[in-house]
Amino acid sequence: MSPKQLRSTPAILHMLLSLAEGPRHGYAILSGIETRSRGQVQLGPSSLYY
What we know:
Layout: H1 10-20, H2 26-36
Helix pairs in contact: 1-2
């Protein structure tokens, strides 16, 4: 896999779903992911800036 390709993971799916709702800052993305996944997906701030 090339470095520019991302693997599809639940975290990436939730990030994309959050951004599909409109522009969001980092904290809103993280808290939305945790809420949407009912706590099943929890990310740290550095996960957004990979």
